[in-house]
Amino acid sequence: MAKNSFFARLPVIRQLRQSVGLQRGMLVAGLVLTGIFLICAIFAPLLAPYEYNQLKGADGNFGAQQAPSAAHLLGTTVGGYDVLSRVIWGAQTALMVIIVAVALSVVIGVLLGLLSGYLGGWVDRILVVVADAIYAFPTLLLAIVAAIAISGGQSGLWPGVMAAAVSITVVFVPQYLRVVRAEVVRVKAEAFVESARVIGASNGRIMFRHVLRNSTRTLPLIVTLNASEAIATLAALGFLGFGIEPTAAAEWGYDLNKSISDVAAGIWWTAVPPGLAIVLAVLGITLIGESLNDLADPRLRARRRASKTPADAVAATQPVAREDLGEVQ
Amino acid sequence: MASAVEINDLDVTFVTDGGDVHAVRGVSLDVRAGEVLAIVGESGSGKTVTARSILGLLPETSTVRGAVVVDGTDVTTLDAAGLRRLRGEKAAMVFQEPSTALNPVFSVGWQLAEGLRAHGNVSKKEARRRAIDMLRRVGIPEPERRVDDYPHQFSGGQKQRVVIAMALALDPAVIIADEPTTALDVTVQAEILELLRTLRDEEGTAIVLITHNMGVVADLADRVAVMLEGELVETARVRELFADPQHEYTRRLLAAVPRLQVSEREAPVSETGPLVKAEGLVIEYAGRFGRNAFQAVKGVDFTLSPGEVVGLVGESGSGKTTIGRAIAGLTPVAGGSLEVLGMEMLGMKERRFRPLRNQLGFVFQDPATSFNPLLTIAQNVAEPLIVHGLAKNPVDARGKVDELLEAVQLSGSYGDRFPHELSGGQRQRASLARALALDPKLLIADEPTSALDVSVQAKVLELFGELQERFGFATLFITHDLAVVDMLAHKVVVLHHGEIAESGPTAQVLGNPKDDYTRRLIASLPVPDPVEQAARRAAARG
Q1: Do B364 and A194 touch (CB under 8 A)?
Q2: I need a surface site. Which of A251, B70, B168, B177 has the fewest CB within 10 A?
Q3: Which residue, among A108, A110, A81, A104, has the nearest Cα to A168 in the 3D structure?
């Protein structure tokens, strides 16, 4: 029982049980798409027919721009890589970037938001002004600058992933700061925080024991929405040539970039699969985020109708009538 | 007399995340023209749901069964267009909080005209003329000029008058007034009740009055319907109900209502100096850029001796809560002198005051928000013990916490619940337990019972009195309710616009008030007895 209720209280599962109708459809679709994405990412070595940087098999080179065939289900790229393998391995890179980017931005953003909202005064002003300044930059430009500064021209797997993740973090931290700060300012005015002050609790204790956990309710939501944005930003960086080299890792944006010239030549299989992968991954995570958003708000949440009449509801909970059991009065 | 509203066997069920809630069970009522029917009951008794069903104002999650006939139309069967026609023309509503019922970006004249124009072909000029007319009818002075004013330019009582004018615009057969005076001060409440009475007498409008205040019921109602857990337990004419309540619950409800009896209470004598001493105390709230600071408290003198209960009484904006917060160090003092537990609060540093905080307890007004919702009651009550180093962690403090909860009549198992799993009264008792955890010398209670139902309030006040006698802590009891002060306080301080209107022993201030404002305050308080209230009203008129 206890296990069951704990299971039911887990974020996404609780919402899944709560949802009905179209909202449930959206959430389920999002979960399925994201599930496929996760499976591809985790089991890439098993699922992908080749390595992401493999150029030749048992019978020599794959050859460039080969049409789909039994050996290469989705053909090969202009660089001579297997498209299907690159798409599956690409999920792994994307997942790594999401995890690092979201973890970094949550930790930094929440801490800064807490300080900013709770302490107020000049700390708050400076942090908010800096956040606003970052907002004012076009996010992609900021990400490019950060990527160049971090990777310094190298483009291995980890430098590439870190560059992408950190540049996304720089863009996301202000969002977390803003959201958490707003919540903290609200929670700070609640009577239970005042009562902690009356008791004589120190600022640190008030911040971390009383304010922090009460201010993070909206975070799962932003995390999912940001995760999809992270994929899009990573792809954009790769597309513009600031991503990861094909020898270091598979990356959808890079493959898309290399397939530009193919499109005009009627070679569809190099562009469509990575493009579709980006769209579906972003769509899946966004659907989860949007559904969580709707379900978190009681006004947006759809509910089952009540049993038609109270009598029906009573009847449903009561044992079967005697007549039905064959008793005759 | 004809029935304005007839409710037959009404049943309302809500779908919630926690399962279906059966809010109203088989209620049958009728309201006649020119009559005030009061529906009384505690929160969750279904009184508001019943009244809202008359206007078809229930949320989508509800399922309604039974019939609600308003002036010949069954509301439960109406579609959206039918409901729109019904609202305003046949039935209208007056809300609890006038500030939120009016749109702040439109003038009141525009809002009144809007209602008229939505229900018929009225020219702009004609609508304006009628808007002015309506404002005059509800007693707004200079209606020709004020019709173009915006809601924020009216006082709370005037805003409620405007809301009533809007409800009256189309001469509805019935007006639903949901706690129309709860958000208002007593002196303003008296004026609004007078206005509603005039409407009933002169316009013959039926009024359904929802309230938890038995004084208001005694003052205004003709008949009373008592609800308990979704069922109607008793309906009677107001005098009969007060004189001879039939149902056991009604008797309990009436017994719980605090009455002003003017009781003599001996103040304890103490050899040591006062715990709190205010001399010419001034507290300001910083103004916006370029504006002067707002003085919430303007030169107040009073003392609070050990073991003494002082009632700080006043209407909203009188500065009573501000003084309580200043004593607890939550609001800075701007001038004069405020000595708390031997420490001067003017220019006080939090670091130096912190060690003294273990001698100070605070009970907040709203028990729903004064506990950290993510900690259990036991963890919340343990906080002061942990902060002041008397326990290392909540587990360590549990023995003492259980003792405290026992003292406020919450058995140990309540400690493991979360705040939202307790009722308002239970939470307020737990709040008292937390305030007393460190055995303080001084307790500040800021409207501790104003968010509670009367019967719960009575229990909490009784418990409070007991604990005060047992532990002998001094108390500053902040409230707007004179009857509550009468039950507990040795001394009363009446505040008016940040200044002391009158202060002295309870019996003297309440029994023989010298100040005009105090006298007005006591006179405005409706007595929960229809016969006496009618006599008082006649005396006030004559």
Answers
A1: yes
A2: B168
A3: A104
Instruction: Chain A: give the shortest CA distance to residue B324, in Å.
Output: 11
| Contact across the interface for A198 and B330, Cβ inside 8 Å | yes
Closest to B48 in 3D by CA, of B190, B220, B176:
B176
CB atoms within 10 A of CB B234: 20
Task: Reduce the secondary structure of B357-412 to three states and give it as a string.
Answer: HHHEEEECCCCCCCCCCCCCHHHHHHHHHHHCCCCCCHHHHHHHHHHHHHHCCCCH
- Whole-number Å distance between alpha carbons of B428 and B370: 9
CB-based contacts of A45: which residues, under 8 Å, 6+ apart?
none
| Phi, psi torsion values for A33, nearest 5 degrees | -60, -45
pLDDT at A298: 62
Tell me if B81 sits within 8 A of B87, measured CB to CB.
no
Residues sharing a CB contact under 8 Å with residue A125, sequence separation 6 or more, in sequence order: none
pLDDT score, position B408: 85
To which H or E segment does residue B508 belong? helix B506-511
Statement: residue B217 has pLDDT above 50: yes
- Please name the amino acid found at residue B539: A
Are B369 and A205 inside 8 Å of each other by CB?
no
Are A306 and B20 a contacting pair at CB < 8 A?
Answer: yes
**Dist. CA B342–CA B278, nearest whole Å:** 12
B490, B506 contact by CB (below 8 A): yes
B442-446 and B19-32 strand pairing:
unpaired
Q: Which two tokens stand for residue B312?
A: 């700080």
| A198 chain-B contacts, CB cut-off 8 A | 328-330, 357, 360-362
Instruction: Inspect the interface and report whether the beta carbons of A191 and B365 lie closer than 8 Å.
Output: yes
The H or E element that residue B280 is part of is strand B276-285
CA distances from B55 to B5, B61, B85, B515 (A): 11, 16, 11, 45
Residue of B nearest to A189 (CA): B369
Give the residue-averaged pLDDT of B475-484.
Answer: 87
Taking a contact as any Cβ pair under 8 Å apart, which residues of chain A between 168 and 227 contact chain B? 190-192, 194-202, 205, 209-210, 213-214
Cβ–Cβ of B13/A190 closer than 8 Å? no
The rounded distance, in Å, linking the Cα atoms of B501 and B515 is: 7
Q: Please name the helix (run of DSSP H) or strand (run of DSSP E) that holds residue B278, with its range, or none.
A: strand B276-285
Q: How confident is the model at residue A125 (pLDDT cuts 50, 70, 90)?
A: very high
The pLDDT of residue A1 is above 50: no
Q: Identify the pLDDT of residue A33.
A: 92
Q: How many CB atoms lie within 10 A of CB B142?
A: 11
Task: Give the number of C-alpha atoms closer than 13 A to the C-alpha of residue B30, restricted to the C-beta side.
Answer: 10
What is the C-alpha separation between B43 and B229, in angstroms, rounded?
Answer: 9
Best of A188, A195, A300 to mutate (most B CBs within 10 Å, chain B): A195
CA B323 – CA B297 distance, rounded (Å): 7
Mean pLDDT of chain B: 85
**What average pLDDT is seen over chain A?**
78
Of A191, A198, A306, the CB nearest to B369: A191
Cβ-Cβ contacts under 8 Å, A190 against chain B: 369
Locate tokens 């010419």: which residue?
Answer: B280
Helix segments in chain A, DSSP class H: 2-9, 11-18, 21-42, 44-47, 83-119, 121-136, 139-151, 157-188, 191-199, 203-205, 219-239, 252-258, 260-264, 272-296, 310-317
Asked whether the beta carbons of residue A309 and residue B65 sit closer than 8 angstroms, the reply is yes
* Nearest beta carbon to residue A313 from set B20, B330, B371: B20
Q: Write down the pLDDT at residue A321.
A: 36
For residue B537, what pLDDT band results from cuts at 50, 70 and 90?
confident
Rounded to a whole number of angstroms, the CA Rg of chain A reads: 26
Q: Tell me which residue of B517, B522, B492 sits closest to B505, measured CA to CA.
A: B492
Q: Mean pLDDT, to the nearest integer, of B379-404?
A: 87
User: Which residues are B362's β-sheet partners?
Assistant: B444
What's the ipTM? 0.72
